[in-house]
Amino acid sequence: MTSSTDYKALTREISSNVSELRNSVPQVMQGFNALGKAALAGGAIDAKTKELIALGIGVAARCDGCIGFHTQALARLGATRAEVHEVLGIAVYMGGGPALMYAANAVAAFDECAPAQAPAATA
């Protein structure tokens, strides 16, 4: 399955728009960035597991930007397609039919970020 969303382009666009917020509301953005760093910092749960959780929440919350950023992070962290799919199964369980639609898009987003793991296209 492919998605019509180009998640790499979407995350670039969001990042560009967020830079405007860094200039106009710097304290808010510094606080948000600090929250993200603290949440993702090493601890009892490793970084990849934390990003898998974030992807599942992003899918259940129906957030395309979250899907884009967290699939990119998961590809960098070496997540497997099987790991991502299991998390998407949990997201669908928790979020129902609407989450299924976003889970399908998350499959495409991860394949975009980790193309070596994507299944070969069939003719």
How is this structure best described in words?
There is one protein chain. This protein has a single domain (about 5-115), classed as Up-down Bundle (AhpD-like). Helices cover about 75% and strands about 0% of the residues. The chain has five helices and no strands. It has helices at about 5-25, 25-40, 45-60, 65-75, 80-115. Helix 1 (about 5-25) crosses helix 2, helix 1 crosses helix 4 (about 65-75) and helix 4 (about 65-75) crosses helix 5. The two termini are about 15 Å apart. It holds the Pfam family CMD.
What characteristics describe this protein?
single chain, 123 residues, mainly alpha, AhpD-like, globular, AhpD_core, CMD-like
- Major β-sheet annotation: none
Topology order in helix (H) and strand (E) letters: HHHHH
Number of helical stretches of at least 4 residues: 5
What class do helices, strands and sheet pairing give?
mainly alpha
Proportion of beta-strand residues: under 5%
Helix content range: over 70%
Please report the distance between the alpha carbons of the first and last residues.
13 Å
